[in-house]
Amino acid sequence: MTPHLQPRTTALSRRSFLVTLGGAGIAVAFASAPALLLAPEVAQAAAGGLVPNAWVTIAPDGTISLVSPAAEMGQGVKTALPLLIAEDMDADWSKVRVVQAPSDAERYGNPGFYGIQLTGGSETVRGYYQLLRLAGAQTRKVLLAIAAAQLGVPVGELTTEPGRVVHAGSGRALSYGEIAATGSLPDPLPQATEADLKPASQWRYIGRHDVDRVDVPSKVNGTAQFGIDVDLPDMLHGVVLRPPVPGERPERIDDAAAKAVKGVTRIVTLAYGVGIIGESTDAVRRAREALVVSWSNSSRVRTYDSASLAQAYREVGRDLAQPGVPARAEGIAPAAIAGATRVIVADYLTDLVHHATLEPMNATALVTGDTVEVWAPTQGPTATQRFAAEAAGTSPDKVKVHTTLIGGGFGRRAEDDFITDAVLLAKEVEGQPVKVVWSREDDVRHGKYRPLAAQHVEVGVDGAGNIVGWRHRVVADSIFARTMPEMFKGDGGLDTVVTDGTTFNYRVPAHLVEYIRQDSGRDVGFWRAVGYGQNNFGVECMIDEVAAARGVDPVALRLELLNGQPRAQKVIEAVAAMADWKRPREDRALGLAYTDAFGGHCAEVAEVSLDRESGEIRLHEVWCVVDPGVAIQPRNIEAQVAGAILFGISHALYEQINIVAGEVQETNFDTYRLLRMSEMPRIHVEVTPTPENKPAGIGEVGLPPIGPAIANAVARLTGGVRLRHYPFLPERVKAALAG
Amino acid sequence: MTAFSINGRAVQVAAEPDTPLLWVIRDELKLTGTKYGCGIALCGACTVHIDGEPMRACQTPLDMVAGRQVTTIEGLSADSSHPLQKAWIAEQVPQCGYCQSGQIMQAAGLLASNPRPSREEIVAHMDGNLCRCGTYDRIIRAVERAAQES
């Protein structure tokens, strides 16, 4: 598959004119963006207004347009990012209008994420935080400078209130709109440094509970425009029939019946499938039903069998002679384990899981000569430019991407397949846009699942029960080998995203983490929390296994291993207090797990009971404490973490993609089970911000601990029965109970 | 031609009688607030009201609505003033938002027949509507709020 997400080194180097390290910390060299250089979305907002930099436009009527560079897929960045600018420019938030950035990595790329526009990895707020606050501070300095000239007073005598500059001495004030109406940009343009940022004590917006999300009103009345809602003049509709086994090609196509369907305009043979173009969704879907295609029989993954692969990967993990690439090697863990009084060994398996975004994959493309326009719910406009260019046979700079709202991303929408579909079909009907919408069956069967993984964990303890060595072997296919091949190579074959979460912050004297790459030939992809989602299962269950072996409370053991890390200790202590950890429950038990994923600290406790006859786990309550560092929007953080907990429960209990002879067995929500409302436990999330710390990523951190918390609770309920295979299906639970 | 009423407006549609109502609403009538999620009535994203009853538009053939009143999220109120819409904003329910039109239409059917539902009744009524982002808890709170405030 196409190598695609690699960092754009040119963007990185050019970024240096925007963000440079100065004596006083980070300084930003902001240039006003001449309207000619702005994309139409932004230029429209800029018309007649004051444009202190590429992020902000102030109109004479006081309306402030702020650019949001990232994709809104439910995580709240369309609010959080502009709010950072508004904070430091002292904008009146009620006058702010948010403009989605065009595909323009040089201007709007994430300085903390390879300089590209890619929303993922919980990197958005973390990566843009400083830059956007500086953009706000620089804007404020521009407004102050213009106001000083207009009022004939020194800048030092001026202050700002939301939306206006005030001269206390004379009682005069100028609104930002008034300044924009008559003022012109000072030359040279004032610049901002870290020293210009508001101290936390003066924040008006960051950390407040009463700032609503800007996207919510459109999501209660049907006006929110997702990718699937794109409607353009003369637009055609498309679908693509893919082979049941990836890698096969259409050999014989009988399209007589399909062509006869009313409203079908064209059948297109693609390298990987058969495309249909027509006048309506209904027409192309009917035509697809009528297509008769025989496929080649030569794909490498025709023998892929997920159940036997899981067992095979487990054997690889256990076979210590099979070397891996070290992700961490502190001390000599194998020797320490060899000399240990006792060794605790466990294997953990995680099945393939699917994103199941409720908005299925889709994109709309228009090809005109060598230029391409794409409207898509994409997490990565920069990569989308490249995917579209490859499909159309042009260069990325000839591709313009309009990022729509996204009906769930979770990593799936960083991929190329849905973009390629739309561009290849649009190429057939140049000058006419084509919208391709996948069916749910397409979406489930042609996913980019989280890797099937086996973890082999060995921990040696001494006579006193102290850990002397920890060895963790992760056996899985690689995501980065396909998506970021240069980085993968540069890291010596280590997939740092598949091994995320293994290099934990517990203090152990010797720690070896190995990645043993498998190459099944089947694409695997980024899935909410990626490596943390699987590896935290192994780590947090093993911590409990060690605690049980030593006869200590698992909370106490964690606190001991996290000595000197007060943020980590605090969330664990707080969640234990919330859950009333020491209080025994009748027929129920508690389990706890913790993660330091994505720069945050998150601890969760699950209260479970068990139907031993059916093997069904019942989840009653979940308590969670999360320290997100500085909390931009605490109410949204609570929602994100609660949502991620449900996502995590769903995957720990139900979700599973089975592949037999290369074919995915699940097709829709009847076979790929997602958590429903009636299956939701009571969830209590407490957000405990530490504003002196940088913001953590909050869209994913709630997910990893819930699975191990459930497994740990089941072990405590059953006197030590360990569940070591996601999902905890009733038959697996029964098998574990039977020993 | 199939004649019916959508959001109080009389329409005539030339699509095949067995075309799912969902695609008629979205492609022909350009009311895109009603979403495609699964096509087999298992997610609820396409929920609309037919003569006031919540129904899955993906499993409703066009000819079934001949002469009937169809209401979509766009027709629930003219200005987002339905108590559920206000409650959805007050509770900041949506994340990605894709399922929320269907959630609100499903909930509106409940409140129309049971103005003061218990939590259990809300859960039982809403259980067919999937939300991948995990907003269930806020959905319940919003329905409870709307019930109290209407």
From TrEMBL, chain A:
Superkingdom as given in the UniProt entry: Bacteria
InterPro entries hit by this protein: Ald_Oxase/Xan_DH_a/b (IPR000674), AldOxase/xan_DH_MoCoBD1 (IPR008274), AldOxase/xan_DH_MoCoBD2 (IPR046867), AldOxase/xan_DH_Mopterin-bd_sf (IPR037165), N-heterocyclic_Hydroxylase (IPR052516), OxRdtase_Mopterin-bd_su_IorB (IPR012368), TAT_signal (IPR006311)
Region forming the signal peptide: none
Domain Aldehyde oxidase/xanthine dehydrogenase a/b hammerhead: from-to ranges: 221-299
Gene3D superfamilies, per database record: Aldehyde oxidase/xanthine dehydrogenase, a/b hammerhead (3.90.1170.50), Aldehyde oxidase/xanthine dehydrogenase, molybdopterin binding domain (3.30.365.10)
Molecular-function GO terms, alphabetical: oxidoreductase activity
PROSITE patterns found in the cross-reference section: TAT (PS51318)
Full protein name: Isoquinoline 1-oxidoreductase beta subunit
Species, as recorded: Ancylobacter aquaticus
UniProtKB/TrEMBL annotation, chain B:
Domain 2Fe-2S ferredoxin-type span(s) in chain numbering: 1-76
Source organism superkingdom: Bacteria
Keyword Transferase: no
Pfam family for this entry, one: Fer2_2
UniProt entry tagged with the keyword Zinc-finger: no
GO molecular function, one term: oxidoreductase activity
Protein name from the UniProt record: Isoquinoline 1-oxidoreductase alpha subunit
Keywords: 2Fe-2S, Iron, Iron-sulfur, Metal-binding, Oxidoreductase
InterPro entries: 2Fe-2S-bd, 2Fe-2S-bd_dom_sf, 2Fe-2S_ferredoxin-like_sf, 2Fe-2S_ferredoxin-type, 2Fe2S_fd_BS, Beta-grasp_dom_sf, Diverse_Oxidoreductases
